[in-house]
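Folds abound. Consider this:
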Amino acid sequence: MADRKAIFSWCLYDWANSAYPTVIVTFVFGAYFTKAVAVTPEAGTAAWGYAIGAAGFAVAVLGPVLGAIADQGGRRKPWLAAFTVVGVLTTALLWFTRPDPADAMWALVFVALSSVAFEFGMVFYNAMLPDLVGPGRVGRVSGWGWGLGYAGGLVCLVIALFGFVQTETPLFGVTTEAAGHVRAVTLLAAAWFALFAVPLFLFTPDRPATRLGVHHAVREGFAALRETLLEIRNYAPILRFLVARMFYADGLATLFAVGGIYAAGTFGMTFGEVVQFGIALNVTAGLGAFAFAWADDRLGAKPVIVVALVALIALGGAALLVTGKTAFWVIGMALGVFVGPAQAASRSMMARLAPPVMRTEMFGLYALSGKATAFLGPLAFGFATQLFDSQRAGMATILVFLAIGLVLLLPVREPRH
């Protein structure tokens, strides 16, 4: 098992990459795109959903393949390093998105590419977890990672708010011309990701290489994945869990992708208010991930996921009914408490279910379960928003995905540890 520095460095990667979904996808850049770049907020919402959906489809198709190839080659850190670099660069390129509809396609292309790089990196990052700690500590370390990730998103949002978005003198001499102070958050997120990812590559151990050449690793990887898919019925608990997660993860991912857009469009929040809401949400989500981490190891991952999904469905329904900002703030804070545990416990459950020699491949399938229908969530949101000319109608589709996932999860048996 790894030492404390190695485990902390692994968790710190969550701190590093959380700047991307928090600042870019959910709260700041997504809201900027729909309100300042797209022709209308509704058209921007639909286009944003299509771009995120297309990225999810690419991850669903290629994630298991890359995982199987990596299992044959042994090492995971080179893959993680490559996708980290791509994610950082494509995020930085979003800086060139001016508040002009002519730049909409530029933004959508690089949001899709950075999202793909982020998700591919998570396949290899998640697969490292079971090699660092024993089964009895997987839940708390996974929860610590998620909690640290929310803290990282929080700190980055604070810097974005007071350093760029809501200040008369943005940092580093950035001007407000052409929304430069808002666009600068893309460079902040990219630099944050790059800087705090470094300790993992320095201090967290990797599996040894298998000495297979690239050609052989690719060939054996495809063969292993084919065999796994043909014999997937032999892994019945894993299959049931992945199918359930396919739906509720889609709901969670869509919630994150459009949360800031919903707050801005339905409740008329300004960019600054959206960032403030994101900061508060990250506080409660981080606290929830830390608090439920111990319950994961003591009671199991499944009970934690079930409780979280029930609470999210109930609170999400309430969020559709309220009309005032204050009520939405209160419900949003409560929602955050259960978002982190649902994600962290899902990762630890997969870590316990996966056979040791197939962990990266299984986490590739785990990515598949999170992305196979991921294009449906944003597409359903965009379609319902466009059809009813209402973001509330779009948000209602998220609850359907969460409910289906909950029902499918109930029969799944978690291994004792």
Summary: Residues 4-409 form a domain with the Growth Hormone; Chain: A; fold (CATH 1.20.1250.20). The radius of gyration is 20 Å. The CA atoms of residues 57 and 375 lie 6 Å apart.
